[in-house]
Design goal:
The chain is α/β, with parallel strands linked by helices. Helix content is 35%, strand content 17%. The protein folds into two domains: 224 residues, Rossmann fold (3-Layer(aba) Sandwich), CATH 3.40.50.150; 154 residues, no CATH class. The termini are far apart. The protein binds S-adenosylmethionine. S-adenosylmethionine binds next to helix 1. The site of S-adenosylmethionine has 19 residues, from helix 1.
Length: 448
């Protein structure tokens, strides 16, 4: 006899879906729980490349994916669902002084569309995600309006921002994101007014490795190994390596090699690490600094002392690596790799507009859509390389068999779009834990 299938199916909608981080996360929750099924009933997205990735991975009909602005009737056009997901863009709300309706303050924004869908469809749960900055955007006004709006729609919502970064939970990417959770007030839940996150934090910490802490500053070698084994690829295609035959790469290799020599050889007062080295200060040692702030004067004096301590080395080094002709941003090195690392090749490198930043090799900076991809040194091949799109997928905890845009498209900029898509997405493992927490309704409380 077959057992009657009485699995509960969670119907969900994916707004501003991107490549489906929320969708993937719920798929993982369902896979772990034999009593659950999930069904995606509505998707909203406008970026054609992200849509391609979404459709290929989740088999959702492309022609059913809509611009949220094209929804005419929020009640009829959006199917009934249990769970709503949205990583909506952060926009400023109007003062709407003379208007009366509570939705008026947000009218015209993309958050308005989300709120209207919630108002009309009353899903049991919602999960919204945004950059941490949302909490202090427009002096905190935006956050207050969002929470007030959602509460008025008859939901229990977290007043306090739930801010989580994967790097705190064994995932080596710093990515502070704020989450807003909503649980519909019904017969069972209406007696509650607060969400307590204790159980979520217990779950987030559960699988954290005991002998390993992403913030443990003593065991970076062990952590680096863990990252290499779990997040980096073993066989990386040649195109991700900096190539001395390419003019741009050649310049960058020269810059990185030069800084490597610099860090290894430079002597500093009492062996201190200097967080920012700005070569500008070695070029003119006599200009007047009295009008600068105290800290800036101290910084320039430090640079001058370092120059005097290393004069011969620095003069030769500047000549050898043609430092004068570097772009301004490469002339500045920000050392965030700590005292015990003395080799730039051990650090993770971020090329920023403001300078080259070397970070401790225990976590990658936030992957964002447009910024240069982190650079690491491959000791086996003795070469610098960029992270691959698959590695950025790993850092966002998408499964190994997730089809990435670079594999799906012949577009010559396919890698760029892949980086952008993972930079825009959510960390799948973190979102899974939050979804599980919401579905369990274990955090509801009543507070006077
Ligand atoms: C921060 S990303 C969200 C990514 C998503 N959470 C994921 O896991 O990949 C925001 C997305 O909103 C989409 N978007 C912007 N305006 C939109 C609109 N009017 N309708 C639907 N999607 C829109 C953008 O194309 C972008 O992919």
């Amino acid at each position: 006899m077959f057992k009657k299938n009485n699995k509960k199916t969670i119907k969900f909608i994916d707004l501003f879906a991107g490549i489906g981080g929320f969708h993937q996360a719920l798929k993982n929750v369902v896979k772990e729980n034999s009593n659950l099924n999930s069904k995606c009933v509505f998707v909203s997205e406008i970026d054609k490349n992200a849509i391609k990735t979404y459709v290929e991975n989740f088999n959702f009909p492309k022609d059913k994916i809509v611009n949220i602005r094209d929804i005419k009737n929020y009640g009829k056009d959006v199917p009934d669902h249990d769970f709503l997901f949205a990583g909506f863009p952060c926009q400023t709300f109007s003062n709407a002084g003379h208007k009366k309706g509570f939705l008026d303050k947000i009218r015209g924004t993309l958050f308005f569309d989300v709120a209207k869908i919630i108002e009309k469809k009353k899903p049991k749960y919602f999960l919204l995600e945004n950059v941490k900055h949302l909490t202090n955007h427009d002096n905190g006004k935006t956050w207050k309006i969002i929470i007030k709006t959602l509460k008025k729609l008859d939901y229990i919502v977290n007043d306090e921002p739930l801010i989580i970064s994967p790097h705190e939970y064994d995932i080596p990417q710093e990515r502070q994101r704020v989450f807003i959770i909503g649980i519909l007030k019904n017969k069972k839940t209406k007696k509650y007014n607060k969400i307590n996150f204790n159980n979520l934090y217990i779950d987030l910490n559960k699988n954290k490795k005991n002998n390993f802490h992403i913030n443990d500053y003593n065991s970076w070698k062990e952590i680096k190994k863990y990252i290499e084994n779990n997040f980096l690829e073993k066989n990386v295609a040649n195109k991700y390596y900096l190539n001395a035959k390419n003019k741009k790469d050649k310049y960058l290799i020269n810059v990185l090699n030069a800084w490597e020599k610099f860090i290894k050889n430079i002597k500093t007062p009492k062996g201190r690490t200097i967080p920012v080295i700005w070569l500008n200060e070695f070029l003119d040692l006599d200009y007047n600094i009295n009008h600068f702030s105290k800290w800036k004067q101290k910084y320039i004096q430090d640079m001058r002392i370092i120059y005097k301590m290393n004069k011969k080395f620095i003069d030769n080094w500047m000549k050898k690596y043609d430092v004068i002709n570097w772009k301004k941003r490469e002339q500045k090195l920000e050392w965030q790799a700590g005292k015990d690392i003395r080799n730039i090749k051990d650090s993770f490198i971020q090329l920023r507009q403001s300078g080259i930043r070397c970070k401790r090799p225990i976590k990658f900076p936030t992957l964002v859509a447009m910024v240069q991809i982190p650079i690491i040194f491959d000791n086996q091949k003795n070469k610098w390389r960029k992270l691959t799109p698959r590695e950025t997928s790993n850092l966002q905890c998408f499964p190994k068999d997730f089809k990435i845009f670079s594999d799906l498209s012949l577009n010559k900029n396919a890698d760029f779009y892949s980086y952008k898509q993972f930079g825009n997405s959510v960390n799948v493992n973190i979102v899974s834990k939050i979804q599980k927490f919401i579905l369990n309704e274990k955090g509801l409380e009543y507070v006077e």
